[in-house]
Design goal:
mainly alpha; 62% helix; globular
Length: 119
């Protein structure tokens, strides 16, 4: 799968997770379709997809043994690095540590990892 296809998978998994886990009506930006997603966010999604895919590969397939929390934490830290890459002074919510993230976001990040595992 190309990085662009992986980035789309990441974004589609994010949107599905938001719809599944977000309490109430999500902000429009949370569920913006791929074609309307800003370029920086597409690049960040592709980079995180690549990091997760490589992590799965170098684990020899054993990343499947990680807990959902561990999978979620990995996605979250990779995303945080991208926020620092793309923004000089990112909003605190963009770079919050995993325990500070809302549960819906933690669950969505785990869903993203598992979608990449299946791909």
């Amino acid at each position: 799968m190309s990085q662009t296809e992986g980035a789309r998978l990441f974004r589609e998994s994010w949107i599905a997770g938001v719809h599944r886990h977000f309490p109430g009506e999500p902000k429009p930006g949370y569920v913006t379709p791929w074609d309307d997603t800003p370029q920086w966010e597409r690049e960040a999604a592709g980079a995180v997809y690549d990091q997760v895919r490589q992590f799965i590969e170098i684990s020899g397939g054993h990343a499947s043994r990680l807990s959902r929390e561990q999978k979620s934490r990995f996605v979250a830290i990779c995303w945080t690095a991208q926020m620092f890459k793309h923004f000089e002074n990112p909003k605190p919510g963009y770079v919050a540590d995993w325990p500070e993230l809302p549960s819906w976001q933690q669950e969505t990040d785990a869903d993203i990892f598992e979608a990449i595992e299946k791909a």
